[in-house]
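Supplementary notes for students who missed Thursday's class. We covered one full example, reproduced here. Read the sequence, then the structure, then the short commentary at the end.
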Amino acid sequence: MSTLYKEEVTTFPSDIEIARSTALEPITQIAAKVGIQEEYVIPYGKHMAKVPLDLISEEKIKQSNLILVTSITPTKAGIGKTTVSIGLALGLNKIGKKAVVALREPSLGPCFGMKGGAAGGGYAQVLPMENINLHFTGDFHAITSAHNMITALLDNYNYHNRGTDKVLKEVLWKRVLDVNDRNLRNITTGLGGSANGVPQESGFDITPASEIMAILCLSRDVEDLRRRIENILLGYKADGSMFTVKDLGVAGAITVLLKDALNPNLVQTTENTAAFVHGGPFANIAHGCNSVIATKMAMSHSEYVITEAGFGADLGAEKFFDIKCRKAGLNPKLTVIVVTAQGLKMHGGVSVNEIKQKNTAGIIQGLDNLKKHIENIRSYKQSIVIAFNKYNTDSEEEIEIIREFCKKHEVGFALNDAFAHGGEGARKFAELVVNTIEENPSQPLQFVYEDQDSIKVKVEKIAQKIYGAASVNFSSQALKKIKKIQETDMNTFSVCIAKTQYSFSADPKAYGVAHNFEFQISDIVINRGAEFIVVLAGDIMRMPGLPKEPQALHIDFQDGQIEGLS
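Structure (token representation):
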């Protein structure tokens, strides 16, 4: 969002300029504002810290109001959920409520690829944004190291057991790297003679797609973390039985690598309020939510907690409800759906090159996409507020069309102008959220599928109920893996569908609302430790590539300052 805004209003300061102009408070003062004493703060410099898990209080969690921020199907420039999430927290604090935001950590891949940053925008950011967007407290490095340490230990096991019945017949575990690199999707390892390992085909996923990332984000505590690591499925033995990290005997070593990363990170907003930023799975290829631990930590220390789920509601919100909330026992009091005029126009058939121009017909046509998302969120028994993320090019006539649509469909509507005005720009938005929660809070979640449903049925229910598919077609490879799953306790796992973020279907160009399509499942990945099954739809890749002009071309270090992050 911030990049688009700067193109429209050239005199408006950049995100990084706003970040630099904000006087940061010591992190111990930020912690004190939410009741965390200095003795519990584990500082990473002056303005970042980790906090220990024993500060989580299940009793206080019950008294907190959790709010999910999701969106319509996004454009390639995004919709601005992070900015809206931070803005809502700022707005709630402006009206006298105690509110914090709980977000995911940015990945280096998109930061140096297309986005340039993911810490909010304008006057609704989490800070210090340069650190958060780059190496932060080292969580991503710890996850990458832990994942690849398992790979190295597994390769070593097979190398020393070659020629015996102990060697694995099939290896499932690959490598990860927090870089967009299409050349690493498919590789061959172990070349150069027997001293260099056993030759085999392998590949890399991006770190946000790592099962270790999912495990860290879903674990309750260090004991649960270790249990899940032990359960990771690495491959199959000669007799067809499963081979896990527990069989490899290294769960303790991997837990050691992750012990500090498991603690959630505490930072601050542009208005010096607390923010917990922890974990970073993508929603198109993973489950798209920040850590359960960070969400519960935030809820233990605040009256209102705002969190977001990646990409559109068909991806992020579905996984937030059906995976994270189901496993963690969470129930949001309200869901915010973020809308932009540009996004609606794109879904209304307007060319991407023309979506900044006034086009009421495109807005009207694109409202079908919003309607479908509203229907989906309501199916979970959630109360809804529509947040219109305002851009300088939006006309009052276009905004009024959306406002009337929301009135007709009996959902709250509010403008969010936190990008330009911080908490003041989200004051009325915050008031509407509070009033909606007090007058009509969400009911207990009604999930799309039941735990006892088969993996096939779970996929079919999501595809048909949430995406609008007429049918689901499973490849022979996917069916073969599902058959293996059915013979184990993994059949009760949740499913995590990996598909394009630009459409309800697996076709990234099917804008608006796709109807009566066949949803193609190409493959299955078993995340036994994370306790969900990743279902790959269409041509989705778990290792992104870089665009023709990556953002790295604009990132630089000049006169002691970082440039190019946004």
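Commentary. The two ends are 10 Å apart (CA to CA). Confidence is low (pLDDT under 50) at residues 1-9. If anything here is unclear, bring it to office hours.
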